[in-house]
Specification:
The protein is α/β, with parallel strands linked by helices and 352 residues long. The protein has 13 helices and 12 strands. The protein has a 7-stranded mixed sheet with strand order 1-9-8-5-4-2-3, with helices on both faces. It has a 3-stranded antiparallel sheet with strand order 7-6-10, with no helix packed on it. It has a two-stranded antiparallel ribbon with strand order 11-12. Keywords: Pyridoxal phosphate.
Length: 352
């Protein structure tokens, strides 16, 4: 906290509060950390996705294939761009886009595939990249829950044309307020993103293109610079907690998360599956352990989308929504608290 307090004070002592030196430094450090050439700070993760789509010229009349098993923000960003979200089903092992169903959903109007690296585990990018190359589509990665996750030795966000990160307070790398960042190694795309985030300005008060207002502020950037230096440490702690859970539950009738070959899971959430989800959740609540559901209602079943998706069936997505349960997962959990969660889950099945 002392380092964060000092970072905040340094901003308060300065004269710039929006898109200043702290933002420039954080952008450079985040780009270097991920292995991207460029990083562009924005106001939040939804804007990161929205501006990414706009930067690639995707909008009215275009379709973007994504998952319904995600936070609604993913869908909101597509709609903000003017494009239409098209939902494909997910696989039962990664809980991310099923490339086979994605292939079925491609039409002449499809312009991009937007995989979500959900819960901290990378999507199945290999087949998606092949589909994108075959059909001349862009890949925009939603990395909101996957800071530092890896696919084939590369950090997510650097695989497709653009990677988009939320820096919301609960994320693996979180601000103390709203924040987001976009990464790319395409210089022209990076330049367009910078224009789009602030009214189309390159020079102050001269709009070169129509743009928006989505700026990362200095306070958040200064805080994020401090927290970025500890991201490897907090990621290791998340993985240690996940390992403890998985080892303790290996003999129970549960479907547990894991690292699929070639992937590094950063465990934004620890999500297990059980047909007894509601009973287990209630059992944990009686012991003052909060377990969440991410996400109980797939996006295509939200009231805002239900009419246009009335006939859409996503069998794996819909089944998972009834079975998933998120156990407590954050790096500040003590070993004692982790053990208490383990005992509580095991007691549901063993009665001990």
């Amino acid at each position: 906290m002392a380092k964060i307090d000092a970072a905040i004070q340094s901003v308060l002592d300065g004269h710039t509060y929006i898109l200043g030196e702290a933002v420039k430094q954080f952008e450079a450090e985040f780009a270097a950390y991920t292995g991207a050439k460029f990083a562009i700070g924005v106001a939040n993760g939804t804007d990161a996705l929205h501006l990414a789509l706009r930067a690639l010229g995707i909008g009215e009349g275009d379709e973007v294939i994504t998952t319904a098993h995600t936070a609604i923000a993913t869908v909101a960003a597509i709609e903000m761009s003017g494009a239409t979200p098209i939902f494909a089903d997910i696989t039962a092992d990664r809980y991310t886009l099923d490339p086979v169903d994605v292939a079925r959903k491609i039409t002449p109007r499809t312009k991009a595939i937007l995989p979500v690296h959900l819960y901290g585990h990378p999507a199945d990018l290999g087949p998606l990249l092949e589909l994108a190359a075959r059909h001349n589509l862009e890949i925009i990665e939603d990395c909101a829950q996957a800071h530092a996750a890896e696919w084939q030795g590369r950090q997510v966000g650097t695989i497709g044309k653009i990677g988009c990160f939320s820096l919301y307070p609960t994320k693996n790398l979180g601000a103390i307020g709203d924040a987001g960042i976009v990464i790319t190694s395409d210089e022209a795309v990076a330049d367009r993103l910078r224009l789009l985030r602030q009214y189309g300005w390159r020079d102050k008060q001269l709009s070169l293109i129509s743009g928006f207002n989505s700026r990362l502020d200095e306070l958040q950037a200064a805080i994020l610079r401090v927290k970025l230096r500890h991201l490897d440490e907090t990621t290791a702690r998340r993985r240690a907690i996940a390992k403890a859970y998985s080892e303790a539950f290996a003999d129970l009738p549960l479907t547990l998360p894991r690292d699929i070959d070639g992937c590094l899971n950063v465990y934004h959430l620890y999500v297990l599956r059980t047909p007894k989800r509601e009973d287990l959740k209630a059992h944990l609540a009686k012991q003052n352990i909060h377990a969440g559901i991410h996400y109980p209602i797939p996006c295509h079943r939200h009231p805002a989308l239900a009419d246009r998706c009335a006939d859409l069936r996503l069998p794996v997505t819909e089944q998972l929504a009834e079975q998933i349960l998120s156990l407590p997962m954050y790096p500040e959990l003590t070993d004692g608290q982790v053990e208490r969660v383990i005992r509580a889950v095991r007691s549901f099945y063993t009665g001990a």
